[in-house]
Structures are given as structure tokens and as C-alpha cells.
């Protein structure tokens, strides 16, 4: 009974009641001997603790067990013990009291409690002495000691025994072990026992034994701790320390104390940025075929949450205790990543890409579930909240994947519902991966084919059939059958004859007699002597002589004469371009062999070739075409080929070498390739051809040609190794090089570290507020980590001393891996490379404006968007207090190719005391010179076009510059005086730059170059030829280009050119657009197709000034005339300009151009290119020649070939044929599906663009064609440019190859068209089959019609029938299914009416359509 009563009492009574009871029992024993005083409370405490199992407060037992003679009253005062405490109580007892628990003993304790309640001094008796100091009435040393004394240890003993390090993270374990135990939320105090004894010296030693229970792996484990110390409180701490050390040893420091980390590093910004770290942890574990274990527990004592993260395969255990469960969850994941990097560095042998698109991850888990569902392995899937409420975590979203209502995979917990849903699907997909390995393998292949995503099938598009446009299909099929399609014929001889006629005039010549050569050489010598003795040219001769290149003339001659290939690196201002050709020519003239020296010098741009030729002619005091000439596209002023220097574009020389290399180089002594570092696709192709030509000439015994590679900055080793020659001993020897310094002033260079130190030394943090701009902050952090060779995903700041995994075993958590053209995974740096520190740039400009008083500031930025942002920061935010809106002091100019008028403002002279700040793209590197620039601020970025061959996406990608670019930019500051170059990137980043820019051959469409190789007559496989390039493209890109050419019909399977391919190879447009132009010939719609072909690939026809973007877009939309076509806008705008140019004054035409936001240069280039295309078609015999004065309204081609040039439906259909496979299907809203992507959008520059606030976009299933695809600078979005709304009928006639699947046609395997009527399906297939056969026939024989009159007459009638039938079908369909009126139908100029009376259908094809 007593036990049950005490147990009940212990469970119900508060802790204050327990303390009072113990104090009363102790007080009743004060008259007893010290031994009995010690023993009774000891036993009572033991009983109490055991029965109640409640923790006893330590100080409640301190002095009640061991009452001293005097008690402290505080402030140094003391008082005598109460009178009822007898001094005889110090008398020793020889026997220990028995264990309490009897009824009488408990009653006595209650009686003492009642007696003491009325005693006024009882409150003083309850004041315990914590001083533990002995007094003058101390008793003799106790002889009674605990029987297990050998178990008691001091604090120092335990710290040594358990090897507890003296570190900050162990401070709570050493100083507050009980608090640490209780904070785990899994520890319970069970009992505590105390005793004391005296040493022979009179010192009191207290011994405490404590017991407690700890939940470990859902099991209660008991622990006993022994402590010894001079005070009882200290002894209790030691006892708890003993227990804590045992638990620390058993479960490890992570679970016991929590994982240690520096709270200062995990700022709110870091935690916000790492909000998706839990997904990354799951993806990391999935890479090792596992899933992490998360356990959550709430600790009521301190209102903390304990998060336990465990990954057993790698023995990673993380414990985090935090008041906010969401933040604690993120911190646990970050600490996991840190430990995972350490494990990976020690155990893995290669890098790990967490965001691997060719593996199962959180972003494609649902796609894998969809595939499993499509193959019938699973049914409906969803996520749900677990039924078991104990499985949920308060403050988190707890979800589990459900397959047909049954749970699959573990329960996951996310800080948001979306995150939890993503995790649930991912965990379920991992389970299915184990169960369905075969489906998973198919899934990976689908990812590879879709460039990292599984392409979703489209819902069938309904084809609405009516007799109005189906009957012309039947009639056309019957008429073609009656005429018959002739067998294909070919006449390769005619092509070869015509091929030579298409080529421009060659530089080569046949040397005349030796007497003529001698005479001409003497003439050149006399002219040279006269030049050197003319007093009027003294100043010119002095200027030339002062140039560094002329001062190194002997070395130039030596290296060129003694080597077949040589390299000359001439720094800016050295006179490399103008002087090297003259040095070589004048040396031959002085040697009496001037007539045999004929030099070709290539330039990468037209303007460079013409301007340099003009400059050199002026230096020689002679007119062009005497000894100096040039040859560029649409303009040729070639000098006589007997002692000459001709400047030309790389493309001109390439064209002549393709035609006939032996003829083109006959009589040529030197070929100089200037600006070779630019590495455009033509320069690389030219170097391959020159290597082959030099080898062939050597084998044929022809005179060698000296080749000189020139540049201001280049990767000398790369080019020297490429042109290495084999010596007699069989070893290769690199071609030699010569470096000539420039004539510029010194330029001081400052990198990012120095710039930051400079700003921090001059300004406070509040002054540098623009450095807190998000992009600037991320950029500076990225550069800091790059400098320290720290992964951007490390938790620690790069400035701190931390161990970093080796680069060979690096875990890339953030960067998204993409599928390259070769089908393999590559890491994308687009997001990091796209960061531009505009805030830092504006601050540096303001610093220069504030601390210097003269000199213009040139800022290099990657694009127009960054230029606008920096411009706004300077004008509106007044960085460092500088007022850039003060027009009397500062002028901000913008230099960008799309703003020609503002470009001219840059060159206007400044007023006195005014400084220019020029914000420019890389156009200011080489093309322009601004003399007053003394300061250059370089972002280190540029935008360049990059083409993905397989997906046919053109990206204007923001990327790092090369060392060559950096050198050119720095040189802008030292033209007139000493300059300063501020490179806003680290020195470590600079050392990793490419020597020169990425060559164009690695980032361009290879179709044209593949055609060129075959047209040149090389018999090697195309891939083998391109493998000889200095930096060859990937084999996958080459194969993709060849596949596209085969699809066009330009190449046979064995890579031989078809007749169509021979024609396409001659056209100055890409092959698909060349085919579109030929379709314009066939369908008598030539003028619009030539305009579209000439406009593609060049500068945008429409300009969009910054301050009038809306007006420019409105004008562009007006040019579409309601057709919904960007292509029609281009055609209509150009036609209108052409009409005004031919009929109005130059001033009126110029005003029209400006008012309608048209680019003058683009209009001229389109006109010149169109004339060239027309000339090629005439030369090939494809169209007849017509003088310009006989043209109808200036149209290109014969009027007969433009009968249908105003038919909008036909123009749209042919534009689709020319741009295919660039076709997309509207998904509803803003998204479209293409052949390669699940989701693309229309570019904001298109007239078909509708923003998020401007409606819902085009209706679902609308088919559009587009010119190119472009990826956004951050790589997240893909856009379509030059978009035209088309129809399903146009796709059926000119789209991909159709295959029948029951009542549906599938075009190229991805566009499904549903046709419910089987008869309609049959008609459409027959019409498409006839159309393809006729077009293939015409294409394959298009280049031989000139020499075969009978063939030309045979296919003329066939072409007219098919063209007329297609036109009628398209216009009838447009009339029926277009809500807006047809703005332009068939050509009203035609003398004949197409199908004025529909012919009768052939038997078997009669009127089932009409009967509908």
C-alpha cells in the first residue's frame, strides 16, 4: 500500500512538494550524528526517485543532506544555527541508519513539516548554503565512504578518458552536460544520489551517482554516471558529464550534439539561394542508387526541432536542431552536401554531375512515370497525405506517391507543397526504376533523342475537308497522270560548262614572255626610284619608315623568303596590314623581279579590304588598279597581275580556289591571310584548302607559293603546329614566327582584386550600394570562388581557409548538364557566364569620373540590354554622388550595331571640359578608333552566335572573351597617351581564357561548307576533309548536316552531289532557302522568294530604337497587312522601299526609310544579294535573262515567273517549305511544340508575339513556320524568330514525309493530322505523292534545262499543271477557313485565268466529293 501511495504521490505531486519533503526529513535528523544525517536522506532520496521516476532538482538536495553549522545570509554575513539544533549532533554514530520507507519514518517527516510551518525561523532553514565552505565548527573527517568509490572520477579524468577535444563546439558538453542531454529531447533523468566524506586533511569530497535513459534507435538505453568534486553541484555536473561522454561515445558527436557549423556562413541570403538543396540531396543519393533518410522530432523543452538526415551507404549522418523547422531542414541539407563532397573526394574517381539530364532526376521523374503509364506498367498516379498522422511533420508538407491509390515510395516532407510533390514523384520513380529496368533504358534513349527531355506526343490536328479544295486535288492528279512524268535525265557536261561561267574573275594569270616581264620589272623599278626621290612625298616616306614593321623589314623578308609558311604577329599600330605587302613587293622590285611578285592579301570584312587598299594606294601616291587593287562581293577593282597587291575578302579567294585552284593561283607569289585570329569559318576552310593546294603543287612540281599568316594577337603555337613541315630526319618542325611591337602608349592593367581594393579604400559600404545589386553580388561571389579554386556550390566563402575537393572529384550541384550535338552530356555554364556586374561597372565609371579630370571612358558590355541598364544606373542613381545628367560635364554615348545614328555621335568632338562615357559592345574592339579614350572598363563578356546543328537552334550567347579580345580592348586606351585598363575579372579567370575566340566552324551551320567541299571536287569523305581543320567540328555535327542535306535532296547517300545540290552550292544563301527560291521559280512566285532568301542570315531589316520600341513594332505589324506573317512584313516593306527608290527622289526614299524604322544597310545588302541570286539563276539556265528596264515594278525575274507573286497563301506555303523543319504547333497559351522541343515561345520582336498581359496567344493546334530558333541569354527559354501563321494544309503539302496510321497521317513522326473520311485521306495522299514526284523530277533536272530544249519543253507543261493545282487548292482553303478577308489573291496581271472551268474528273475519281 505504501509503495502504491508513494508512487501515486510521486506521479501527481509537483517538484516543490518533493523538495519540501526531503528538507523536512533532513531537518528531523539534525540532532543525529553526521553519519545518520547522511544516510537517511540518501536512502530517502533513493526511494523517492525510484518510485516517482521524476528528476530531482540538484540544489534541492544540496545542503539538506549535508547541513553545515553556519548558513550564509549573503553579503558575507552569517548567523548561528537555530537553537533547536543541538551541538551534540556532531557526535559520531557508529552504525548507519536503515533504509527509510517505514510508516513511522514517513509520519515523522510529516510531523516535522507541520511543526516547522509555524516556526518563524523555518524560512531561514529553507535557505540552502551554496558556498560549501567549512566553518570553525567543522566536524572531524568522515570515515564512512561509498562502497563503490573506485567508480567515481573527476571532470578531468572523464575528459581525458573519453578524449573530448578542447574545441568550441564541445563547450556545452564540458560545461553544461545536463542541458545538452535534455536538449536532445530523447533523454530522461531517472535518479540522482549523493554522499560526502572528509579527507584526512579535512577537505570535503562529494560523490554523486546519476542515472538516466536515452532513446537510441527507438530503444531506451540506461546510463549511470559517477561524479566526484569539492562541491555537490560540481559533483552532479561531473556525473552528468560521465553520462554525456558515454552517449557521445555510443552514438557519435553528430547525433548527440548535432552537426557543428558556422552560423555566420549560413546567412539568410545563402539559405534563400539554397532553397532547393533538398532536391539536390535526393538526386545525389539517387546517383548512388539510394535515398536519404529524414527524421523529425520536436523538443518541447526549448521548442526546437531536431532534423536527422542519414545516408547509410556513405555513413553520412547530420543532426540539426533549430527553432524553424524549414530553415533547419535546409541547413541539414547544406551540411549533407558538405560531407558528401568530402566522401566523394576520398572515394570517387571522377566528377559527379548532379543535374544530369540523362539520368533520373526530380525534373524528369513525372516523364518517366508517364512512360510507365503509356506502356501499361502502372495506372493513374497522384500524391496524397499519409493516413497515419504520426507520419506527418508539423510545419512541413508531408506527401506520398500513390499508384492506383496504393502508396509507392517513402513519405517525403517539403517546405512547400510543390517541393513535397516533386520529391514524392521522384521517390516513386526511383522505385519503378528498380522494378522496370527495361523501360528505364528506353527512357534514357528518349531523353537523349529529345536533348534532355522526353518529347510529348501531340493530340491529332483535325483536317476539315470540303469539296471546294479537294476537287482541285483530284483534277490535278488526273491531269498529271495523262501527261506523265518523264524519266529523269542528266547532263553533267552542261553543269561543268556553266560552273566555270559563274565564277568571278580569277587573280591568276599566265606570265607573258621573259622580255615582257623584264620590261615590266624595269618600269616598276623606275617608279619606285621616282617615289623615293620625290620631295613632295618626303613626309609620307618618313611616316612609313617610322612604323615598327618597316624597322623590322629585314627580319620580315628573311622569314618569308626562307619558309613556305610564316607567321607575323604585329601589335596594334605596327603597320602590319599596310606595310608587309609593300615590303615584299618593293624587295622584288629592287631585285629587278617586280613583275613576278603578285600578292593576294585577304581581309575578314569588305570594309577592311576596300579601306586598306585605298590607304596603301595613297601611301604609294598612285590610283587604284595600278599596282594596288581590291575585290569584294559586288565590287571589283583588281590591279593588273604583273607586280601587284590585291586585297580581297576571304570568301572571294575561297570561291576562286573552289573553282580551279591551279588557275586561280597561276602567277601568284604570296598569299597573306590577315586577322587570322578571328577564325571565321571561311578562314578555317581556306587554311585546309591551302595546305592541300601546297601539297599538290609540290607533287606536281609547280612553283611554291609563300603563305604568311598575320594577326595582332594570335595563338602562335596552334598555327605553327598546324603548318609544321616534315624534315629530312622525319621529325616535324613548326613554322617560324616573328613578333613586332606596336606603336602605342603603355597601358596600366588592373584586375578585379585591385579594383575592389581601390573602391573599398576610398568609399564606405553605404557609398558602394550598387555593389549589392543581385547580379553584381552573384558575379563577385562567383569570381571570388573561382579565384580560390572553390566550387561555386561550396558552403564556405572562398576567402576563408577551407579544404576543397580536388577538381578531379568535384560534385557539381547546381549547373545543369545538357545533351550536346554528339549525344553526350556536357555542363552548361550559361547562367554563370551570363552574369554581368552592371552595378560594379557603374561604380567604377563613377570612381574614374570622380578621381580623374581628363580622358574619355570606354566601357565594353556584352549587349544592348546591359548597355541600357548601365546607362540607367549612371543617369538615375548617381553612383558615388556623381551627377551624370549634368550635360555640361558628361556625355553618355551608346555604340551598338542596331543604332547607326548613335554610332556617329561617338566620333563628334567634345566641348572643352566635357568627358564622354562610351557604352559599347565588342564593335569598338577593332572596327572603330576613338582617340580621346584613356580609360577602358571591361566587363570581360561578349555575345556571339552559336548554332546547335542537331536542334538547329541559334543562340546569341553571352560568354567570356578571349585573351585576344582582352588585348584588343586594352589597346583602345593607349592610342594617344598612357592609358588605364580596368578588367572586372580576376587574374585567375584571365589565365583560363582561350587564346582566341571560339572558331566559327565549331559554332555554325555546316551545310554550306559540306556542299562547298563536294562542289570543289574533293573525293574524300566530307568528315575526313573537315577533320583536317585546325580545330575540327564534332563528327555528330557533321553527320547532322549531311542528313539535312540528304533530306533536301542535295546529296546522295554516298555523299555525291545531285543536280539540285550543284545549283544550291552556287547560291549565296543556305541550302534550304536556295530550294525555296527554286520553288518560287516552279510556282511562278519568284520575287518574294528571292527577297526572303536574300534577307535571311543578314542584318534585321527592321530597327528598334531604345526610345521608340512601341512605334517601331507598330510599323512592323502594319507591314504584315493582317496576314499574321513576319515574312510578309519583310516582303511588303522591301517592295515598298524598292518602288519608292525607283520612282521617287533619294530624299523621299531616305525619309521613308527613317519613318518606317528600316535599316538602310540591310536594304542595300538584300538588293545586292537578290541581284546576285538572279544572276546565278540566269547563268545556270534556270530562268531567262531580262534587262532591268523591262521588269514589272522592279521585280526580280521575268514577269511570267511572278504571275503568283501576290498570292499570300502561296507565299506562306512556300516559306514553310523553305524553312522546314522549322515548324511549330500551338499548345494553347504562349507555348508551342516543335520537332525538338516540348515548349518554345514566339520572340517578342515578332508581330505574332502576345505577352502575358495581351491575351492567350494563338489558338490551340495553330501551325506556324519560323526562320530560326534562338535561346535566351540565361538558357532557360527558347524563342522562334520570323514567325508566320500557316495552315495544316500547307504542312500536309510541303511538310515532312507522311505515314498513314489508320485514319491519321503522321508527318515526320510528330505532327498527327486526323482525317475521318477514308476517301479524303486517299485523295490527300495521292495529291502529295504526285506533288513530290513532280518536284523531285524538276529539282533533279533543274540545272540541265538550258542545254536540253526538249526536256525544258516537256517539264514546262507539267510544272504549270502542278503549280496551278496547288495555287487553287491553297486559295480555296484560305477562303473557306480564314476569318479575315484575303488581302491578295492570284495575280491580276496574268493574261490567263487559272482553272476558269474545272475539268471533269477521271473515271473512278468522279463526284463523290461533290455529292457531299
From TrEMBL:
Compositional bias ranges of the Polar residues kind: 112-122, 134-144
Keyword annotations from UniProtKB, A to Z: ATP-binding, Helicase, Hydrolase, Nucleotide-binding
GO CC annotation terms, alphabetical: ribonucleoprotein complex
Listed EC numbers: 3.6.4.13
Transmembrane regions listed in the UniProt entry: none
One Pfam family here: DEAD
Domain of life: Eukaryota
Domain Helicase C-terminal: 843-1017
Limits of the Helicase ATP-binding domain: 557-732
ATP-binding found in the keyword field: yes
InterPro entries (UniProt xref): DEAD/DEAH_box_helicase_dom, DNA/RNA_helicase_DEAH_CS, HA2_WH, Helicase-assoc_dom, Helicase_ATP-bd, Helicase_C-like, P-loop_NTPase
Ranges where the record places region Disordered: 68-147
Biased composition (Low complexity): 86-98
Gene Ontology terms, MF aspect: ATP binding; hydrolase activity; RNA binding; RNA helicase activity
PANTHER family reported for this sequence: ATP-DEPENDENT RNA HELICASE, ATP-DEPENDENT RNA HELICASE A
Protein name in UniProt: RNA helicase
Amino acid at each position: 500500500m505504501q509503495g502504491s501511495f508513494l508512487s501515486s504521490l510521486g506521479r501527481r505531486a509537483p517538484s516543490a512538494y518533493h523538495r519540501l519533503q526531503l528538507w523536512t526529513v533532513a531537518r528531523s535528523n539534525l540532532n543525529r550524528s553526521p553519519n545518520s544525517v547522511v544516510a537517511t536522506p540518501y536512502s530517502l532520496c533513493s526511494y523517492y526517485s525510484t518510485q516517482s521516476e521524476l528528476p530531482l532538482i540538484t540544489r534541492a538536495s544540496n545542503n539538506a543532506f549535508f547541513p553545515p553549522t553556519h548558513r550564509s545570509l549573503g553579503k558575507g554575513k552569517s548567523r548561528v544555527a537555530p537553537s533547536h539544533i543541538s551541538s551534540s549532533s556532531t557526535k559520531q554514530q557508529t552504525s548507519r541508519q536503515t533504509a527509510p520507507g517505514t510508516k513511522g519514518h514517513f509520519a515523522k517527516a510529516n510531523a516535522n513539516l507541520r511543526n516547522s510551518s509555524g516556526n518563524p525561523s523555518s524560512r531561514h532553514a529553507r535557505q540552502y548554503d551554496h558556498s560549501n565552505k567549512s566553518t570553525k565548527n567543522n566536524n572531524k573527517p568522515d570515515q564512512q565512504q561509498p562502497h563503490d568509490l573506485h567508480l567515481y572520477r573527476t571532470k578531468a579524468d572523464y575528459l581525458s578518458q573519453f578524449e573530448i577535444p578542447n574545441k568550441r563546439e564541445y563547450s556545452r558538453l564540458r560545461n553544461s552536460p545536463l542541458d545538452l542531454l535534455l536538449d536532445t529531447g530523447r533523454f530522461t533523468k531517472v535518479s540522482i544520489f549523493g554522499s560526502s566524506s572528509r579527507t584526512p586533511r579535512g577537505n570535503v569530497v562529494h560523490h554523486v551517482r546519476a542515472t538516466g535513459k536515452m532513446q537510441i534507435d527507438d530503444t531506451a538505453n540506461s546510463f549511470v554516471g559517477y561524479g566526484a568534486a569539492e562541491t555537490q553541484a560540481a559533483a552532479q555536473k561531473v556525473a552528468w558529464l560521465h553520462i554525456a561522454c558515454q552517449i557521445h561515445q555510443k552514438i557519435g558527436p553528430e547525433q548527440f550534439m548535432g552537426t557543428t557549423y558556422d552560423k555566420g556562413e549560413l546567412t539568410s541570403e545563402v539559405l534563400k539561394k539554397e532553397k532547393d538543396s533538398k532536391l539536390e540531396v535526393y538526386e545525389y543519393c539517387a546517383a548512388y542508387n539510394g535515398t536519404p533518410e529524414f527524421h523529425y522530432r520536436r523538443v518541447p523543452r526549448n521548442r526546437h526541432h531536431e532534423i536527422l538526415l542519414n545516408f547509410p551507404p556513405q555513413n553520412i549522418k547530420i543532426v540539426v536542431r533549430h527553432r524553424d523547422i524549414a530553415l533547419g531542414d535546409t541547413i541539414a541539407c547544406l551540411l549533407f552536401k558538405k560531407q558528401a563532397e568530402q566522401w566523394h573526394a576520398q572515394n570517387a574517381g571522377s566528377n559527379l554531375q548532379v543535374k544530369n539530364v540523362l539520368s533520373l532526376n526530380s525534373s524528369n521523374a513525372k516523364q518517366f512515370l508517364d512512360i510507365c503509364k503509356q506502356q501499361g506498367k502502372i495506372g493513374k498516379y497522384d500524391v496524397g497525405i499519409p493516413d497515419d498522422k504520426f507520419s506527418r511533420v508539423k510545419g512541413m508538407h508531408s506527401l506520398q506517391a500513390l499508384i492506383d491509390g496504393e502508396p509507392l515510395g517513402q513519405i517525403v516532407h517539403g517546405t512547400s507543397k510543390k517541393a513535397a510533390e516533386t520529391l514524392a514523384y521522384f521517390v516513386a520513380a526511383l522505385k519503378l526504376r528498380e522494378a522496370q529496368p527495361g523501360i528505364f533504358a528506353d527512357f534514357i534513349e528518349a531523353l537523349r533523342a529529345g536533348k534532355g527531355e522526353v518529347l510529348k506526343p501531340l493530340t491529332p490536328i483535325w483536317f476539315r475537308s470540303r469539296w471546294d479544295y479537294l476537287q482541285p486535288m483530284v483534277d490535278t492528279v488526273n491531269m498529271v497522270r495523262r501527261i506523265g512524268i518523264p524519266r529523269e535525265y542528266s547532263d553533267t557536261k552542261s553543269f561543268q560548262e556553266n560552273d566555270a561561267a559563274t565564277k568571278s574573275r580569277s587573280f591568276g594569270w599566265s606570265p607573258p614572255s621573259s622580255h615582257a616581264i623584264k620590261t615590266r620589272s624595269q618600269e616598276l623599278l623606275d617608279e619606285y626610284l621616282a617615289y623615293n626621290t620625290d620631295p613632295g612625298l618626303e613626309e609620307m616616306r618618313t611616316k612609313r619608315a617610322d612604323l615598327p614593321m618597316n624597322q623590322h623589314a629585314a627580319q620580315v623578308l628573311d622569314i618569308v623568303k626562307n619558309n613556305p609558311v610564316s607567321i607575323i604577329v604585329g601589335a596594334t599600330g605596327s603597320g602590319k596590314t599596310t606595310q608587309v605587302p609593300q615590303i615584299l613587293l618593293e624587295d622584288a622590285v629592287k631585285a629587278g623581279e617586280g613583275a613576278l611578285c603578285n600578292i593576294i592579301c585577304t581581309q575578314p570584312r569588305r570594309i577592311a579590304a576596300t579601306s586598306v587598299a585605298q590607304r596603301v594606294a595613297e601611301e604609294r601616291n598612285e590610283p587604284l588598279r595600278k599596282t594596288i587593287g581590291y575585290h569584294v562581293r559586288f565590287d571589283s577593282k583588281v590591279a593588273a597581275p604583273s607586280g601587284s597587291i590585291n586585297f580581297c575578302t576571304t570568301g572571294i579567294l575561297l570561291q576562286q580556289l573552289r573553282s580551279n585552284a591551279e588557275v586561280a593561283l597561276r602567277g601568284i607569289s604570296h598569299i597573306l591571310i590577315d586577322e587570322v585570329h578571328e577564325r571565321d569559318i571561311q578562314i578555317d576552310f581556306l587554311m585546309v584548302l591551302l595546305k592541300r593546294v601546297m601539297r599538290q603543287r609540290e607533287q606536281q612540281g609547280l612553283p611554291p607559293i609563300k603563305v604568311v599568316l598575320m594577326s595582332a594577337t594570335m595563338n602562335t603555337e596552334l598555327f605553327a603546329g598546324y603548318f609544321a613541315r616534315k624534315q629530312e630526319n622525319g621529325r616535324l618542325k613548326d613554322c617560324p614566327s616573328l613578333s613586332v611591337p606596336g606603336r602605342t602608349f603603355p597601358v596600366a592593367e588592373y584586375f578585379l582584386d585591385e579594383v575592389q581594393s581601390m573602391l573599398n579604400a576610398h568609399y564606405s559600404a553605404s557609398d558602394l550600394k550598387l555593389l549589392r545589386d543581385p547580379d553584381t553580388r552573384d558575379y563577385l561571389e562567383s569570381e571570388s570562388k573561382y579565384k580560390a579554386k572553390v566550387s561555386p556550390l561550396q558552403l564556405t566563402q572562398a576567402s576563408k581557409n577551407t579544404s576543397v575537393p580536388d577538381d578531379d572529384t568535384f560534385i557539381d550541384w547546381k549547373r545543369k548538364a545538357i545533351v550536346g550535338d554528339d549525344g553526350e552530356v556536357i555542363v552548361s555554364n550559361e547562367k554563370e557566364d551570363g552574369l554581368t556586374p552592371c552595378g560594379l561597372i557603374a561604380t567604377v565609371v563613377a570612381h574614374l569620373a570622380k578621381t580623374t579630370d581628363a580622358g574619355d571612358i570606354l566601357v565594353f558590355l556584352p549587349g544592348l540590354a546591359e548597355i541600357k541598364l548601365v546607362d540607367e544606373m549612371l543617369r538615375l542613381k548617381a553612383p558615388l554622388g556623381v551627377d551624370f545628367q549634368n550635360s555640361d560635364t558628361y556625355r553618355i554615348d551608346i555604340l551598338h550595331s542596331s543604332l547607326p545614328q548613335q554610332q556617329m555621335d561617338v566620333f563628334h568632338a567634345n566641348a572643352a571640359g566635357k568627358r564622354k562615357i562610351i557604352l559599347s559592345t565588342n564593335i569598338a574592339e577593332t572596327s572603330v578608333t576613338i582617340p580621346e579614350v584613356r580609360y577602358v572598363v571591361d566587363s570581360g563578356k561578349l555575345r556571339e552566335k552559336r548554332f546547335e546543328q542537331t536542334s538547329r537552334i541559334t543562340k546569341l550567347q553571352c560568354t567570356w572573351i578571349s585573351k585576344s579580345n582582352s588585348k584588343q580592348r586594352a589597346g583602345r586606351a593607349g592610342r594617344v597617351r598612357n592609358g588605364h585598363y580596368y578588367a572586372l575579372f580576376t587574374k585567375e579567370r584571365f589565365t583560363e581564357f582561350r587564346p582566341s575566340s571560339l572558331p566559327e566552324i565549331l559554332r555554325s551551320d555546316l551545310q554550306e561548307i559540306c556542299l562547298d567541299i563536294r562542289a570543289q571536287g574533293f573525293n574524300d569523305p566530307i568528315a575526313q576533309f573537315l577533320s583536317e581543320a585546325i580545330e575540327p567540328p564534332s563528327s555528330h555535327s557533321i553527320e547532322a548536316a549531311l542528313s539535312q542535306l540528304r533530306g533536301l535532296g542535295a546529296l546522295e547517300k554516298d555523299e555525291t552531289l545531285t543536280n539540285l545540290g550543284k545549283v544550291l552550292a552556287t547560291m549565296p544563301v543556305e541550302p534550304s532557302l536556295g530550294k525555296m527560291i527554286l520553288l518560287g521559280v516552279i510556282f511562278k512566285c519568284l520575287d518574294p522568294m528571292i527577297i526572303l532568301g536574300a534577307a535571311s542570315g543578314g542584318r534585321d531589316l527592321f530597327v528598334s530604337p531604345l526610345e521608340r520600341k512601341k512605334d517601331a513594332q507598330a510599323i512592323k505589324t502594319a507591314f504584315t497587312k493582317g496576314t499574321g506573317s513576319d515574312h510578309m512584313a519583310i516582303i511588303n516593306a522591301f517592295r515598298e522601299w524598292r518602288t519608292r527608290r525607283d520612282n521617287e527622289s533619294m530624299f523621299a526614299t531616305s525619309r521613308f526609310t527613317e519613318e518606317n524604322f528600316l535599316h538602310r544597310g540591310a536594304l542595300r545588302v538584300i538588293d545586292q544579294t537578290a541581284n546576285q541570286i538572279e544572276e546565278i539563276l540566269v547563268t545556270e539556265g534556270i530562268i531567262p535573262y531580262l534587262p532591268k528596264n523591262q521588269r514589272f515594278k522592279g521585280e526580280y525575274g521575268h514577269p511570267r515567273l511572278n504571275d503568283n507573286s501576290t498570292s499570300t497563301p502561296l507565299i506562306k506555303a512556300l516559306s514553310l517549305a523553305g524553312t522546314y523543319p522549322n515548324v511549330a504547333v500551338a499548345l494553347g497559351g504562349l507555348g508551342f511544340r516543335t520537332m525538338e522541343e516540348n515548349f518554345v515561345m514566339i520572340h517578342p520582336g515578332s508581330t505574332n508575339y502576345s505577352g502575358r498581359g495581351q491575351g492567350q496567344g494563338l489558338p490551340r493546334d495553330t501551325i506556324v513556320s519560323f526562320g530560326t530558333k534562338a535561346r535566351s541569354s540565361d538558357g532557360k527559354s527558347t524563342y522562334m524568330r520570323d514567325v508566320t501563321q500557316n495552315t495544316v494544309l500547307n504542312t500536309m503539302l510541303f511538310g515532312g514525309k507522311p505515314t498513314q496510321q489508320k485514319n491519321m497521317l503522321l508527318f515526320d513522326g510528330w505532327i498527327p493530322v486526323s482525317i475521318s473520311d477514308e476517301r479524303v485521306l486517299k485523295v490527300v495522299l495521292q495529291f502529295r505523292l504526285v506533288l513530290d514526284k513532280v518536284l523531285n523530277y524538276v529539282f533533279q533536272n533543274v540545272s540541265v534545262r538550258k542545254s536540253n530544249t526538249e526536256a525544258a519543253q516537256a517539264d514546262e507543261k507539267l510544272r504549270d499543271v502542278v503549280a496551278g493545282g496547288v495555287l487553287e487548292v491553297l486559295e480555296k482553303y484560305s477562303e473557306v477557313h480564314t476569318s479575315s478577308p484575303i488581302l491578295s489573291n492570284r495575280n491580276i496581271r496574268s493574261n490567263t485565268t487559272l482553272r476558269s472551268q474545272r475539268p471533269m474528273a477521271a473515271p473512278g475519281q468522279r463526284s463523290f466529293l461533290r455529292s457531299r
